[in-house]
Amino acid sequence: MAPSATPSPIPSVPTVTLDNGVEIPQLGFGVFQVPDDATTAAVTAALETGYRSIDTAAIYGNEAGVGRALAASGLPREELFVTTKLWNADQGYDATLRAFDASLAKLGLDHVDLYLIHWPAPARDLYRDSWRALERLAGEGRIRAAGVSNFQPGHLLRLLDGATLTPVVNQIELHPGLQQAELRAFHADHRIATEAWSPLAQGAVLDDPAVAAVAGRYGKSAAQVVIRWHLQLGNVVIPKSVTPARIRENFEVFDFALTDEEMQAVAALDRGLRTGPHPDELN
Ligand code: NDP
To answer: pLDDT tens across 41-76, in order?
Structure first.
């Protein structure tokens, strides 16, 4: 048979079915700290690689850059999964509705797939009012799934009291240096999906010899091993890169699997390593 010039097909990313039935790709692409003008190129590279889920936030200042890449891609809207987040200063019922409209306008969309309250900001004590607004937006079909980010069990319990919707996702800092076993167990008990932010600890877990040993066995990079570890734990994972070769590398994680022993070797790196603020303290 003559060699085919057809490029190899893009592997399809497994999905996690959220408690409301919406499916989220388990591997997505994050754009924290990417300037708006650089975001379009990064998201375009991600979409060309095969990522279909993009994670942005109002505070990142790059929703417009994401929107430009989505529009230019020509991909059907239903193949894309777009997440954005409500910033702390916009918490409260009316302010949330206004902030959501502003985010949609910047993204150039008529709905988002997942809208998250970015931080509980407990000292402001507005997250329950903000949640009422998310419940309304979900009822109107302008957000397919409503969730939270950086909520601790106490914040979630307070949110759930009197709520008509349960958050289907909690996006939290999670990587081999901060494994969040207790919070993940709480999520499992409440049918909340765990989404891992800074899944590579912004690079801080990539030099570890235990990770390097596993990587060497499969001819993979440390980042690929860490992403694979997340996928096998069941996390939704959203690594960020502005480097095209890394964007592709971080997607090449569906052709190998860690053994139980290798999962344990990565689990042994848990050490309370926070790269971001503690959720009780950011307001
Ligand atoms: P990550 O853990 O994804 O790490 C990103 C860093 O790792 C960048 O410096 C990147 O460099 C580098 N990197 C990426 N891939 C590789 C690779 N294959 N080899 C070596 N280095 C690599 O950090 P983020 O903090 O960006 O987290 C990911 C996403 O999570 C964010 O973009 C955002 O969407 C979300 N997030 C949410 C938060 C929340 O409060 N809800 C808080 C923080 C993040 P380079 O880009 O130069 O290639």
So the answer is: 999 999 999 999 999 999 999 999 999 999 999 999
Measured at the CA of 52, the angle between CA 48 and CA 56, to 5 degrees, comes to 105
Q: Is the CB of 150 under 6 A from ligand 1?
A: yes
Domain count, the chain: 1
What's the whole-number average pLDDT of the chain? Answer: 96
Establish if 229 belongs to a structural domain: no
Task: Identify the sign of the CA torsion 24, 30, 36, 42.
Answer: negative
**E runs forming strands in the chain:** 15-17, 23-25, 29-30, 53-55, 81-86, 112-117, 143-149, 169-173, 193-197, 236-237
On whether residue 251 sits in a domain, the answer given is no
Residue 222 covered by a domain: no
Whether 63 is in the pocket of ligand 1, judged by its Cβ within 6 Å, is: no
Note the pTM of the prediction, 2 decimals. 0.97
Annotated catalytic, 218? no
Nearest-CA residue for ligand 1 atom 34 is 30
The ligand 1 atom at the shortest distance from the C-alpha of residue 202 is: 4
What was the pLDDT predicted at 12? 85
Q: How much distance in Å is there from the Cα of 195 to the middle of ligand 1? A: 13
Residue 234 lies in a domain: no
List the CATH number of the domain containing 31.
Answer: 3.20.20.100
Residue 10: per-residue pLDDT: 72
Query: Residue 167 is part of which domain span?
Result: 18-202
Percent of the chain residues topping a pLDDT of 70? 97
